[in-house]
Amino acid sequence: MERKVRILIAKPGLDGHDRGAKVIARGFRDAGFEVIYTGLHQTPEQIVAAAIQEDVDGIGLSILSGAHDYIFPEVIKLLKEKGAEDIVVFGGGIIPEEDIPALKQSGAKAIFIPGTPIEEAVKWVRENIKPRK
Amino acid sequence: MRIISELKTTNSELFALRRNGGDRMFKQDQLEDLQREKKKWEDDLSKFLSETPERLPHFTTISDLEIKGLYTPDDIKDLDYIRDIGFPGVYPFTRGVQPSMYRGRLWTMRMFSGLGGPEETNQRFHYLLNHGETGLSIAFHYPTLMGYDSDSPMARGEVGKCGVAIDTLKDMEILFEGIPLDKVTTSMTINPPASILLAMYIVVAEKQGVSKKEIGGTIQNDMLKEFIAQKTFMLPPKPSLRIIVDTIEYCTKEVPRWNTISISGYHIREAGSTAVQELAFTLADGIAYVEAAMERGLDVDDFAPRLSFFFDSHIDFFEEIAKFRAARRIWAKIMRERFMAKKPRSWMLRFHTQTAGCSLTAQQPFNNVIRTAYEALAAVLGGTQSLHTNSLDETYAIPTEEAVTIALRTQQILAEETGVTNTIDPLAGSYFVEALTNQMEEKAWDYIRKIDEMGGMVKAIERGYPQMEIAEAAYRFQRQIDSKEKVIVGVNKYVTDHPPITIWRMRPEIEQRQLKRLQEVRSTRNNSKVKECLEEIRKASLNNENLMPHIINAVREYATIQEICDIWREVFGRYTDPGYF
């Protein structure tokens, strides 16, 4: 049997808005994924270390502070440096639509804005993230 | 205040008489007639409904409180007007804390503002004041909120984005340029470093020639709700409380017009709580602060009049109004009966309101103007003392000048065109509003009792109780939206595309300017003096001496926020997120 998809839900930076991260963590758990939640105030280095240690298949970054343009590329860069670029990075939060193309350019695979139903994110994970070998 | 104490004397005598039996608003025979007629109406209604059923199986508030189709005197038959509703400015303040409410003075229009550096924010302050704003409210960027300087590795990517960057007194001086601090009151949304920002404000005033006895304003300074909801925490609960009590003790003697805590439900609600949870957890936090200050040996009547509150005004109109009215009544009872406060001012729950950020949508953002207007109306009908109205673009970024102007105008239209300010507490006596107010109160007491049984709010937080209650409620609500059981226009119903709106962007040179200024301050200040001052803070931290005078000395010498917070992190340890979900 194929193992469950493992997702790290991460709250980078100093941002304390964790409502969305916790809702999506529960939603993913209820959908049958294995979910690890970092808790708040994680640096990109801590997030990448946790992702590797927990051997996750994807990282969901939740950012509502406006720091997305720094955090996403930084996490993706660190994953590459550690040879873990096959971990899929996606995220959501207060992110202006016009910033999304640049985040995708940097390697983020999907950005979900406020109002996204849990099911939409679940469906996206099912279609785009497979357990890594 | 003279009027209040006169009215209070009359009221307390009546109150004592009515404590037990109560003097009901409706006579027994009237109620019996009513119940008979109501039964007939209900029979007719069920015939009617068998042909034309109601739209929904249940009608509920946004917090899932079931609402009946009709309320009558029967629903408030135990209400005693004098005991439970009373008069404005009179215990238990259900109708408001001021005797004349908005006929005397409108609420303070206080727009939460902070963007980029102190220069940009100073400009925004002047803009808002010139457009009729009547009080200031500072939004700080995340590094300041968390006790880091702009050049800390922890601040990477965050400088000036979520609010204004303040590192030293120098930034505060720029922030208040051209703003006389004896003419305006300022609210600061700041928690772990609240004492430091208050100290900076005191010194800026001093430099303007304004004594700390004259300045007025509020620091949020409410750490318990940080552990529960807003999550800008730094130290563990106990030392956090100790620093809060230091500020209360200091201000009670030295800064008499300062509101020492803004006990906040706003963030609890925004984190996903129900209205009742917001109400109950906030008041339970209030109880914990009063207990902590009394343990220090302070007289409740010396500090309680300077405690203030801060609530959310969400989109469910009547539930919010009932929440505000119930809040005043519960707090009055807590202060008078539990803490034996003697002064009427100690019994009063004065509060600021912010319309619900979490009710706004990224989709069809212009609809947010309408949501905010309804929420603002609820706050005013609920008797708020000051109000922030959110801007239509805040699901994307800090508001633009154009968006914030519409938000401010929303309050001005409410205050000066709609006529809702002409009379006091106009919804009192509504069978529905009074019944809902009672219901909010009863349900809040249930939570407060439960938290008392756990040993108080600090213990409850350590067990993760309020955190899990909120996470549960937030998840349930999201599921209800996803299943369309609850409607959000433009999100799960009436969905259409909308053209992008223009949003505020932080210019990168602002961060460079901030870092340069911080460097300059560090190289031009008297560093040996700063070191001495910091050493005094360390000693006072260890010796349980009141920290405030030492903090004031340190910021006057341009010590940075992080320099002070690093000492506390070292002495008291850090609080890290237990990550409940």
Mean pLDDT of chain B: 95
CATH top level of the domain at 86-454 and 461-482 in chain B is Alpha Beta
Mean pLDDT of chain A, as a whole number?
A: 95
- The structure class of chain A reads alpha/beta
Q: What structural category characterises the helix and strand content of chain B?
A: alpha/beta
* Shape category of chain B: globular
- Could you name the CATH homologous superfamily of chain A? Cobalamin-binding domain
* First-last Cα distance of chain B: 47 Å
CATH architecture of the domain at 86-454 and 461-482 in chain B: Alpha-Beta Barrel
- Order of neighbouring strands in the sheet with most strands of chain B: 5-4-3-2-1-9-8-7-6
Which architecture of chain A would the CATH scheme give at its second level? 3-Layer(aba) Sandwich
Rounded Rg of chain B: 25 Å
In percent, how helical is the residue content of chain A?
25-40%
Count all strands of chain A and give the number: 5
How many β strands of chain B by DSSP?
9
Quaternary state of this entry equals heterodimer
Question: What's the domain count of chain A?
Answer: 1
CATH homologous superfamily caption of the domain at 86-454 and 461-482 in chain B: Methylmalonyl-CoA mutase
Order of strands in the sheet with the most strands of chain A? Answer: 2-1-3-4-5
Largest interface by Cβ-Cβ < 8 Å: A-B, 37 and 48 residues
Strand content bin of chain A: 15-25%
